[in-house]
Amino acid sequence: MRTLRTFWTRLGFLRSLRFRLTVSYVLFFTVLLVAIGLLFRGTLQLEMDGDTRATLEEEWAAAKGYLHIEKGQPVWVVDTSDPEEIYIVERLRHVYLLTDANGKVLENSQTYDSIGVDSPQEIQRILRTSTPEVHVRQDADGVPYMIRAGAIRGQRGNLYFFAMGRSIEGNQRTVDNFMRSYYFLVLPGAIFVTGLLGWLLAGRAIRPLNLVAATAQEITGSKLSLRIPRRHANDELDNLIDSFNRMTARLSRSFDQIRQFSTDVSHELRTPLTVIRGQLEVALFTAEKPEQFRDAMVNALEDVEKLSSIVRALLLLSQAESGQLALQKTDLELGEVAADVVDQFQIPAEEKGVELMARLEPGASAFADRTQMERLISNLLSNAIKYTPKGGKVSVHAGPDEVHGWVRLVVDDTGVGIQRDNLPHIFDRFYRVRTVETRQVQGLGLGLSFVAWIVSAHEGTIQAESHEGQGSRFTVRLPAGIATAPETAAEPATASL
Ligand code: ADP
Asked: What pTM was estimated for this model as a whole?
């Protein structure tokens, strides 16, 4: 078994695409050339037999001129002084048979004897047909002859059977010789040349594939910027190269995000850790009174809380995305939930100098999980406040959507906005926009991925619109609960997620 596998591995090139392409190419041409050979053989044979037949007809007509049947006996009328005529008649009588109507042989040549005299029945059958018959027969040595047999009339008008023939051995030999050189010289030569050509052509055809494979092998985590050059042939291979390049671009983005995320996480975790350590060290070495220890511990606890909230967010997202977070959906008044969250954000907004307003319409209920809805609104609100500079405005609107059966939550801000290029990626896990304005703002790039997960877990949609430097708007649409007031139907809005 093992030896077989080693043998198969050694013959690895036999499985290569190039080899298989060449073999198909050679097979195709072999079949084609054999078919052409057979066709050619048939045509050549027919052509040569046609020539013999025509000569036989001429000879038959000539023989009829020389042969007279007088009183039931054949007489060859020959000018004995003309050696050429004697020779011609001798040739005509080389393969010939003359019988009467009953099949009684009147005269025949030795060669015809060797072919075999026709039976009386056969002779009578041929005599009954008006036109002479041509057929092929073999002599005792297997030499083929083309025989022309038919009726001729004697002097008294009696019918006689007359047959004469010509050897077609030469024809067959010519055809056989030709086919032999075709099959043993031309065909192997042509197959060899086709194989060589096929091998070269197949090599050329798959060269770009090998290039793709070689580039793919070079691509590693640190070399994801490599791209395979397009051939500009706009063919299937170019499509493959495009898809491959797009895939590496996506991979490269994910790798960048993960790398960035690791940096962010370590940074986010390190800062509070350093602070906690500092506070504890100071307390340990300098604090004397119990109040001083107490203060240090309270501060340290606050930072520990911050740390756990980061870890919690990470854990939650991974639980959510792996489907471990069970939702408890009930009929929720969206306005009420939004009002609670808006209340919680009033103080942070005031501290930042951002005006926070809410327009919460009653009668908009969603079939949703309360905790996740609060998280969704609070993530959107916290972002809106985070990315809106002092003096800006943030507004929340909850109410029924224009589309019947849906409710809508809109969070608007007059903040820094998001560049058009970044907009499609903001819902990606760990994705953070890094501009001068946003660089100072702390975050992990997880808030919107969580929002996106909550929306899709509620079978809703979320749409983000933004104008750089002017502000952003996030619109969440959720299927309405039972208590929602019916609205007039309208065209559904396009959603980005
Ligand atoms: P982060 O923790 O960085 O806020 P998010 O997932 O919540 O992560 O948001 C992803 C990115 O989208 C942010 O880094 C930010 O650049 C951009 N973003 C989100 N909301 C807003 C907004 N209201 N205004 C401007 N940019 C925003």
From this structure: 0.50
